[in-house]
Amino acid sequence: MSLGSNRSRMIIGCLIGLGFLYLAGRKVDFSLMWEAFTKVNYWFVLLAVPVIFFSHFLRALRWRYLMDPIKRVDVASLFSALLIGYMANILMPAHLGEFLRAYVLGKKRGVSASSTFATIVVERVIDVFALLLLHPKHDVTVHLNKTTVAIPREPLIVGRGDERQDGLIVQTEV
Fold first, then answer.
1. What is the pLDDT of residues 80-111, one digit of tens each?
2. Which site from 12, 16, 93, 133 is most exposed, i.e. has the minimal number of CB atoms within 10 Å?
3. Rounded-to-10 torsion of CA 80, 44, 157, 118
């Protein structure tokens, strides 16, 4: 069994995955986790799943418009690569799944991975501006080539009541 064979790579990958699974779950109190699972209203989960998939479909559609100047790619391929990237983001730190997303689409549809990654960066910039626009107080307006972007002066705080100090704070300096 050579190190380069598919079977040996799969076995090594599974062993590494099991090792990380052990590290992640070694201090988990499974009785508390089971108790939490018994209190969940799963009807909300069933309602959320189609909404999440529709949201991802819309993201794939948006990505197609960003990819059009490079190469016309079908939405199904983009949707597949998007979900693979998001799954990898769950498993890997620092949004490394975005690199995998570009790689997968490059291999699947013959698009340059660097061009694909550039569209992903543009997507993230659009997402940041969308979050800034959702903030209720827009104190500063910036005009960029017929596009108006409102930037709030106060920080955005994500979190619930008592968790606000632990939430993500995004602050723009004006």
1. 999 999 998 888 778 888 999 999 999 999 99
2. 93
3. 10
Q: What is the DSSP letter of 160?
A: -
| Predicted confidence (pLDDT) per residue in 27-83, tens digit | 888 899 899 889 988 999 899 999 999 999 999 999 999 999 999 999 999 999 999
Rounded Cα gap, residues 8 and 22, in angstroms = 21
Helix (H), strand (E) counts: the chain:
6, 4
Q: Which residues contact 156 (CB under 8 A, 6 or more apart)?
A: 131, 132, 135, 168, 169, 170, 171
Structure pTM?
0.63
Closest CA relative to residue 85, chosen from 44, 53, 120, 61: 120
